[in-house]
Amino acid sequence: MSYSCFELGVKDGVAHLQFSRPDEFNSMNPAFWQEFPEAIADLDAGGEARVLVISSTGKHFCSGMDLAVFTSGDNATSGATGAHARGASRNHILELQETFTCLERARMPVLAAIQGGCVGGGVDLVAACDVRYASRDAFFCIQEISIGLAADVGTLQRLPHLMPSGMIRELAYTGRRLPADRALDIGLVNELWDDHTSLIEGVMGVAKEIAEKSPQAVWGSKEMLLHTRDHTVAEGLEHIATWNAGMMQGSEMAESFKAKAEKRAPIYENLPPRKKGL
Length: 278
Fold this sequence. Notes:
2-enoyl-CoA Hydratase, Chain A, domain 1; Lyase 2-enoyl-coa Hydratase, Chain  A, domain 2; six-stranded mixed beta sheet; 11 helices
């Protein structure tokens, strides 16, 4: 399937989604909000992708939400008044949120490779990814405060789990830029590369390493980490006990031990296909 906002391919278990509107600084136009969650749902349902890398082209990773999203006649609040307008506005925000929540729901880990500016909606997106990497010219900006809006698509809900509270509050209240080296210091990104080319090569190397592991075990690890983020330790322990009792694949453990004994790489089956949205 072809997309207007990005290119997408899968090779050797690694899916690579690359934003392809560099002249527009990869802003999130109305088509993006339709195409992106559909692409993620297709990848997840297919089971072939064991890890997803999201990268970009041009000077900036993403300049955030395109103004056309606010001014388009297709906007969910168009034509509504009073309470109907407020209800339509709330539903529209929830739909936008789902565009990035689907990254957490997907069974495969999602790695973000960020160069240049990651602004507004771009921060919402990378906050929903499992791991973030950046080039040294990257910066992050919660731009919404500068246009009179509290960020409402995930930044304020997810970043407090990824970085110190005082720092996220400062960025959210001021709209200041967070440079890549500082993002590394506080743990928002895992590693920096000198330029865009080496960034992509490095992140694809990490993705390849993940893709060689048991997809079932990687999925379970992601599920547990997300569950633990939002629950107590005791609840997390209960969840992993139930999960492994029902989902642990003895055949994959056997293949791991056999491969080690035979001094070769293990061969694992892909995750089974599933219906989109489950």
